[in-house]
Every structure is written in C-alpha cells, then in structure tokens.
Amino acid sequence: MSAENLAEAVRRMHAADVPDEAITTFERGYRLIEQGESGLIPEDTIEPLGDLPSLDSLDAPADDDALRRTVMIRLNGGLGTSMGIDVAKSLLPVKDGLTFLDVIARQTLAFRRRHGVELPVVFMNSFRTQGPVLEALSAYDDLPVGDLPLDFLQSREPKLRTPDLAPVDWPADPELEWCPPGHADLYPSLRASGLLRRLLDEGYRYALCANADNLGATVDPRIPAWLAATGTPFALESCVRTPAERKGGHLAIRRSDGRLILRETAQTSPDDIDAMQDLSRHRYFNTNNAWLDLQAVADELDRSGGALELPIIRNVKTVDPSDASSPEVIQIEAAMGSAITLFEGARTVVVGRDRFVPVKTTDDLLVLRSDFYELDDDFRLRAADEALPLVSLDKQFFKLVPDFDRRFASGPPSLTDATALTVEGDVSFGGGVRVVGDVTVQAADLSDGRVADGAVLGS
Q: What dotted CATH number matches 2-355?
C-alpha cells in the first residue's frame, strides 16, 4: 500500500508541475520516513563546538572581486498565518511605515551606492506570495539587475496522513493538502528554476541566503572576501545562545566524520532535551544566514541528481493548522542550514545580534517597531543596546496582528530603557508610553484596561 501511496503523491506533484528535483527530494524523504527514520540526531552522536572565529576576527584581505560576484537570496515563501495575516509576511509594515520588502529593497540600493557593485537580490517566493510581492517590488524600478529575475518559486509537496503515509484529501480547502518542504527547498528550486546555472554563467560565485523577516541579514563585504581567501564552500552565521534560545536548535560536530551538523529541536529526542538546552554545552545557534559558494552547491546538486542528501525533519501537524481536531499529517522537511554537513571544509562564524533580528511573533514585532531599533541612512537596523528587551505579550489578546495593532493604536511604547516587558490580560496602550527596567503590566491593575498616554512604567 505504501508504494501505491507514494505513487499517488508523486502523481499529484507531477499534475501540479512540481519540478523533478523537488519530486526526487520528496521521494527520498518519503522512503526514509517509510523505513522508520525519525530524523532524530542522538546526543551521543555529536560533540559540542569549541571556540569559533568571530566576524570581527576574520583574517582576509578586502576583495572587491568577491563582492562584485555576490548575490543575495531572501527566503520569502511564508504567509503570516501564525500571526493572523493571510498575505506574505514580508508585506507587513515593520518600521517607520515601511514593510520588510521596502527595507530590504532600500538596504540593497543603498549598499550598491556605497560599494559600487550590482548586488542582485532575488526572492524565493511561493505560489501564494509571488504575485503580491512582485507587485510591491515594482515600486523599485532600479532594483532588478540586467535580465536577472527578481524571484524564483519554491516547490511544494503533499501532506501525508500519519497512519499510512497517503497524501491527505481536504476538500474544505484543497490548498491545505500541500505544504512547503522547508527552507532546504532552496537548493532543488535554485537548480530547477535555472537560476543557479544562470548566476554562475554571469560570473556570480557567492550568495547570502536569509529569511525575509530578518532585516539584520545584510551583506558584509568581509564574508565573501573570507570565503574566497579560504576556499570555504559553505558557511553559517551563528550566535551565542542565551536563555531565549534554550529551546531552539544548535550547531555541533558529528562524531562519525568530524563535520559540522545542525540539530533542530524537532530532531532532538525527549531523552536528549536537557543536553540540547544546556547552554554551557551547546553554545551556538544557527541564525539561518547561510553563505554559499554557488559552484560548490551546483557540483553537489549534480552529484546527487538534484536531491541533496540532507537530514530530514518529520514534522507532525494537523492538516488545518487552525483546527486541532483536523486529521494529523506528516510534513517531510529539511533545514537550509543542514547542508553544512555535506561540504568538506564548511565553517561557521559567530556574528553579533545585529545580524539576527527575526520576527516570528508579535513580541518580536513590538521590539522592532519600537524606538529600540532605528534605521540609519543605509536603512540598516541600529539597536539602542546589545541586550534586547525581553517582551512577552499575552497570547490570548496579542498573538494576532490585527488584535496587536488595536491595542497599540497610538504606537509602540519606548523600549530604549527597558530590560523586559510582560503584559498579562487585555491591555491597551496610549501614546508616548515609556518602559523602564523590568515591567509587568496586568489588566487587573488598570481601571479601564488601558495604560494612559505618556505613562512611565517602571522605575
């Protein structure tokens, strides 16, 4: 029966014009799941990383040629459904009335002017994000470089029923029968779209690949110079873990061959959670800012027939993410950063928190919209302090962007002097509010559930 179910899944992918590279990748993952592969990476198969080089310590001469041969790829297939919006998350206003896309476009144009290079930027869109994103980018006539496209499409794959791995049927919303294969879909989609070969043919060699919701991920000229000087085929930017990243993935060394490996939370067994969350043992997390030698990636894709042999993630969800009673399904995924294991000589470099400013929740959104961050003349984010204020908003009232916006209708509070802000209950904020130190606001303590205009919270 499983052979029939796989054949049906592949038939649906062909009917949906999914590229052959993506189908081959899906088939490999399906067979691993069928064989009982959990995707787990046991603690006794890895070793913690020692001291790593920092960005500021990289010893490589300036290399204008390497910079001229650099491109930027932004992963932009996600909708903001977890935050209550049904459009591309990158269209969400985040700073001074500008969206993620606006800031990325303006960062790119400013970088070109400052450094005198072309620096193409290309977005990996999904079928859901492509149209609106390209329409928004049309406001920037000078963003395209030559005939290079502004985007290419990620693939998709069927969600599988957990009992028998058959592709799920969901007539109520057939779109929910499909899912993205994770950020590692970058590799087969680059190849299938023809963009990888085109970039190489036009002389580009290095690429910074990063999530569109991380406005800290800008090109630093030191990194392509370092890649060129050392011959590094693949590099990940990492940060030192703090308690905020205790539950996230981390980098380590694989004992079997001494190569770097990325272990996500979903790849950690319950027995290994304590070790995974031990910040003194596993000190570095992956920012999902990846630097590729495009020729090395092309060679590895050719060797593997377009399907990189990456560790899989067996992600169990419900077919309708908003309905916990809907059927349970398996999504076969892989992480972009997990490709670090495939390349001999791959490295990781420690960067500052200024290069890691993702927006996954409205907690993150409040910090980004506040005065804690400013945009400089080159539209790069500048933080008021190295230590970010820890924001925790009551999920019942603030999880969704429309609800969040209503409660901060007069603008976000000042967070430049804040260390933490916790909001419990249904609280609305007036304009000009300032948070100082570690503050907890409880709706029960406010007569009308509202923080007054101009209020100073904390000592």
A: 3.90.550.10
- Residue 242's pLDDT band (cuts 50, 70, 90): confident
Nearest residue to 121 (alpha-carbon basis) of 99, 143, 146, 141: 143
| Integer CA distances (angstroms), 82 to 65, 78, 422, in order | 42, 10, 20
- Which residues have CB under 8 Å from 103's CB, separation 6+? 94, 95, 215, 375, 379
Domain ranges of the chain: 2-355, 362-457
Torsion of Cα atoms, 228 then 230 then 234 then 236, to 10°: -100
Contacts with 37 (C-beta within 8 Å, 6 or more apart), sequence order? 312, 314
DSSP string, 271-296: GGHHHHT-TTTS-EEEEEEEEEEHHH
The mean predicted confidence, pLDDT, of the chain is 94
Task: Quote the strand ranges of 231-283, DSSP E.
Answer: 234-240, 250-254, 260-263
Per-residue pLDDT tens for 277-299? Answer: 999 999 999 999 999 999 999 99
Q: How far is CA 401 from the centre of its chain?
A: 19
